[in-house]
Structure formats: C-alpha cells, structure tokens
Amino acid sequence: MTVTALVSAKSSGVTTTALALALASSQPSLLAECDPAGGTIRAGLLQGRVDASYGLYHLAAAERAGDDALAHTFASHLIPLDGAGNRRVLPGLTDPAQAAGLSRTWPALSQVMRVLSDEGGYDVTIDAGRIALESGALHPVLTPAPLLHGADLVLLVVRGTSQSLSLARYVIDPLKAELEERGSGADALGLLLIEEGPARAHEIAETLRLPVLAALPFDPETAGYLTHGGQPPRNSKRNPLLPRARTASDNFRAAASRRRLQRQYPQPPAPAYPQLSGVLQRLSQGAAPRG
Description:
alpha/beta; two-stranded antiparallel sheet; 41% helix; globular
C-alpha cells in the first residue's frame, strides 16, 4: 500500500484532508497525527473520548526501550475510527512542547509506518502539519522531516486562493531539496488542491511547477464533521468530499506504484544529440545515412 505525508505552508486543512483520506480509503487505513504543533483530532472528531494516556508522545519513551517496545506501544495506541477497526488513528500531541522529545523517535516511527504499509496492507496517511523553516531548510524540531523522507508521496495541501499559493511557493524548494538529498527523490512531492478560491488545478500546477495529484471539493458540512465530530453527513451528492477522497487515495496508490517501478527500472538517459541518435538508429537498421 502507500505512505502519504500531508504538509502545508500555513493552515490549509491538512488534518481535515488527512481524515477524509483515511476514512474514505478502499483499503485498511491508518492516520498518524504527527503535527509538532499539536493534535486536534482528540478534541475534535473524537470529541474528547480519548484522553492523554493515548497518543503519539508515548512512543518516545517506547522507542528508547527498543524496537519491540515501540511496535507494541504503537499498536496499543491506535484508536478505531469505524466499528470494524479497519480505519485507525494515532492521536497527536496534547502539548506542542512535547515535540522536542520526539526528534530521535521520528526515524523509527517512519520504519514502523513503512512496515505497516508494505507488510500490513495499510494505506498510511501522515498529518505532518505546517512546514517550519530555519535558514532555508526544514526546522529540525518543528517539522518531522524523517517521516517525509520515508513517505512514498509528500503532498503540499493548498487552496486555490492567492494567499495560499503565495505562501506555498516559499516551501517548495526546501521540500524538494530535502527529499532529493534524504528522501526518495524530489519527484515524490506533489500538490493536493482544496477547491476553494478562483485558481484552477492547471493554473496552480503551472504557477508552482508541481503536479496536482488530487483536487478535493470545498465541502464545509463534511469538513465541519471531521473537525468537530457529531453526526456525519449522508448526502454524497451534496457532500462530495468523502467520495472524492476515496478516488484520490486510489490515485495516490497508483502514483506511488509507478514511482516504485521507475526507481526499480530507471529510464535510460536521453541522448545528448538527438540528430546523431537518429543517424545511429538508421545505421543499426542497415540503412546508410543520407549525406
């Protein structure tokens, strides 16, 4: 399956989008709420039913005790999002001050998510929150960079507004550099568009020079349920977010599969001199070049 990390330049609905993808996936799914600025699902969608004794921060102590302790703690801190337990969430931090204690835990957690995806058959969505920069690079505490390194896809969530796009452009180059140097390549980075605002997907892709891998509708009613909990909307025609999110998660799975194949069987480099290549091709076919 696929590990997908969602990030933003500023609040663009990353957590709401991550929840939509996890709930709508056609495969067993896990949402890991890993925003160093703190989690909101515990008080929002879960409406306080899960206290601070569960969640991301407890993995830090477990990681120090070893791999077995980390795996056991990780599994025991997942909260079901549906009756069958096919969709689960790892609740996030209750206090942003806890983020510093996770700096050495992120790499091991990335490996856990990789195993859960590759061997457990889960679609894993990581809510990595807002990108924080320091001296033009990813901040070592306020951005969980190792989780981005291990993801199949890193999606920058944007809205079709001038404010969102103007902020997004400043984090793209640092993200590309980070993924090229330490991740699976700069081509892991793409855009996930929330269709609010006048800009269309093709315009945004051209402006930011990144592909739009999915576009989700601006659906305030469903977004309100995912943010605050309560009764889920049932009219999929009037509330299209979850049906479109299901299609998006299928598309991400296909895109990640293509990237894995491309890394396994890289394309040969393009010839430096296309005209010369054509001459050599004709020679190999037994035809003399025309002088």
